[in-house]
Recover the amino acids of this structure.
């Protein structure tokens, strides 16, 4: 409607033209207000999602040894940073963090190699083998973890791997999750095949073209898989619960459970420990977000692949 | 010509032709993935299926008992309670999670300044390690001191005892699980952005409002993704809800939050009735496979593929 008026504007009296300018101005303002409203709404929603984390940090800083406040006042009795020191005394948290770091680093390190190998090989296969392998990877993706608890336990017990970290990082040999293999596969498929064909003609073997061409070009995928697999092993609770027996070998996830059993009602300590466990995961993901500045596209690809 | 000579020379120095050698090298890179998947997923899943027909306590050798475990299952009240709980959990959690993800995606899909910060803040709350997430919510839902009930008190709303009361414990767990909608949101944002923009422009020119273009364009085109997300959430909800139950309620009060994975864990690792646990696993696996198969079969014709 406005555009129609604008088209016929020159023939109209001047007073009406100024009226149109005012209308246009009003439109800009309306859009600006809509923009501000959108930001306000988005910030509100984000705050709702972050509120539990805020409460976690606030509660972790309440002084222990007195009943928690029955109101939501922030820091009624002062800020007790000492809670964070206290958990390191009541459970061997430093040791557990070290154990977790070891398991997650090894797990993530092995994962990016094996997942990237598998993805690279899949991408180079002829069409039929490729279809078959992608199907297999998707099928593995749908197999629930609880289906393999029992036999894995029996298997590891037979191999004498119970209470070792090998039992925890064993899935890294297969790329931890077939999702990671698929992520590499899709990123290698997007690369030009001529690249690898010419490398082959120049005498480069599979190993060489993986290491010198494919891996450097897939650096963003490698980074994403590194973060995802690191947090997978860092967060893993069921495997250490099943496979670890000696408390000196516990990872931080199981350590938090033991803390909970010892100090069931000491919320400040429990939530301080939870904060410490969350921190590295958040740092890694935030780093990844800053690196990419965009949402990972792979989720969409997986679902599309499944649809077709 | 030159290249062919080189390739001929290279080939003659090996037993296989270059193509075969290339293929063999590729399969070599795939070995860790395929071997690991066979040893850690495929075989264990089959073993679980086999154990379902045996009596086995991890000490003596398994004894073949035919269908006895399954018959026993049907007469065990706690199994049916767990089935009912798992279904109820999925029925509450999955639709909430998908609806929430859709609303978030509709709010945050436009490319505007600052939108990345909003998206990643919400996504971050999804990657909180399970144990820490369970501890945070155990605090939030504390009947006396928990922030949720204090806020409800401000509003003058009733303050249920949440996890302490049989009637509210399961819905509380389901709502908690549903708040992790970050992945679904990213998927739907990606899907929404992949929809052709001219459709929306045309609708706008025809005078369609926001609601109308959502109802007649966005909704039908996103329907396959919404359905897949729903199925995924049902499956993951049914199989993955072990850690929160283990940490937060221990299956109680009574059997109010005994979900199938928790019951399976208890049967296998606390009572060492491994055959019985395997039978439950088999039933659960069959049910989810049927669901997935049915959805794939129904939606085969829905799919439209414009990339991949």
């Amino acid at each position: 409607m406005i555009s129609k008026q604008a088209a016929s504007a020159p023939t109209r009296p001047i007073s009406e033209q100024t009226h149109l300018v005012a209308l246009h101005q009003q439109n800009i303002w309306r859009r600006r207000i809509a923009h501000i409203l959108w930001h306000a709404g988005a910030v509100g929603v984000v705050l709702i999602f972050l509120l539990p984390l805020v409460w976690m940090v606030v509660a972790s800083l309440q002084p222990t040894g007195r009943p928690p406040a029955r109101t939501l006042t922030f820091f009624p009795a002062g800020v007790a940073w000492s809670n964070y020191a206290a958990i390191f005394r009541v459970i061997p948290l430093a040791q557990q963090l070290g154990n977790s770091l070891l398991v997650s680093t090894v797990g993530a390190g092995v994962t990016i190699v094996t997942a990237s190998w598998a993805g690279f090989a899949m991408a180079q296969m002829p069409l039929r083998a490729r279809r078959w392998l992608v199907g297999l990877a998707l099928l593995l993706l749908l197999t629930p973890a609880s289906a393999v608890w029992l036999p894995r336990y029996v298997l590891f017990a037979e191999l004498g791997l119970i209470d070792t970290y090998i039992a925890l990082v064993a899935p890294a040999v297969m790329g931890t999750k077939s999702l990671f293999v698929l992520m590499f596969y899709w990123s290698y498929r997007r690369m030009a095949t001529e690249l690898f064909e010419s490398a082959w003609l120049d005498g480069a073997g599979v190993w060489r073209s993986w290491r010198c061409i494919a891996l450097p070009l897939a650096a963003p995928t490698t980074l994403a898989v590194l973060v995802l697999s690191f947090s997978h092993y860092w967060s893993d609770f069921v495997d250490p619960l099943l496979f670890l027996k000696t408390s000196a070998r516990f990872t931080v996830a199981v350590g938090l459970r033991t803390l909970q059993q010892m100090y069931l009602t000491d919320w400040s300590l429990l939530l301080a420990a939870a904060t410490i466990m969350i921190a590295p995961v958040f740092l890694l993901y935030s780093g990844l977000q800053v690196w990419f500045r965009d949402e990972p596209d792979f989720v969409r690809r997986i679902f599309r692949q499944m649809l077709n | 010509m030159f290249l062919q000579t080189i390739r001929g020379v290279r080939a003659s120095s090996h037993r296989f032709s270059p193509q075969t050698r290339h293929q063999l090298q590729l399969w070599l890179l795939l070995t860790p993935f395929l071997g690991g998947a066979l040893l850690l997923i495929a075989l264990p899943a089959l073993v679980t299926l086999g154990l379902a027909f045996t009596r086995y306590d991890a000490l003596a050798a398994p004894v073949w008992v035919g269908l006895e475990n399954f018959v026993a299952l049907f007469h065990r009240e706690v199994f049916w309670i767990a089935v009912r709980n798992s279904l109820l959990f999925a029925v509450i959690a999955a639709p909430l999670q998908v609806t929430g993800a859709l609303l978030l995606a509709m709010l945050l899909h436009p490319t505007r300044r600052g939108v990345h910060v909003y998206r990643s803040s919400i996504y971050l709350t999804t990657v909180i390690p399970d144990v820490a997430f369970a501890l945070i919510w155990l605090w939030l839902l504390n009947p006396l001191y928990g922030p949720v009930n204090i806020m409800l008190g401000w509003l003058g709303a009733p303050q249920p005892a949440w996890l302490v009361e049989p009637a509210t414990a399961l819905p509380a767990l389901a709502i908690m699980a549903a708040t992790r909608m970050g992945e679904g949101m990213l998927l739907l944002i990606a899907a929404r952005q992949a929809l052709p923009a001219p459709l929306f422009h045309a609708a706008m020119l025809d005078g369609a409002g926001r609601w109308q273009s959502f109802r007649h364009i966005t909704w039908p085109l996103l329907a396959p993704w919404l359905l897949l997300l729903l199925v995924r959430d049902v499956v993951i909800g049914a199989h993955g809800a072990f850690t929160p139950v283990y940490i937060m309620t221990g299956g109680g009060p009574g059997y109010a939050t005994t979900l199938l994975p928790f019951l399976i864990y208890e049967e296998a690792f606390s009572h060492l009735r491994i055959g019985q646990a395997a039978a439950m696993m088999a039933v659960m696996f069959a049910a989810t496979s049927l669901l997935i198969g049915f959805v794939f079969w129904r939606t085969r014709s829905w799919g439209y593929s414009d990339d991949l």
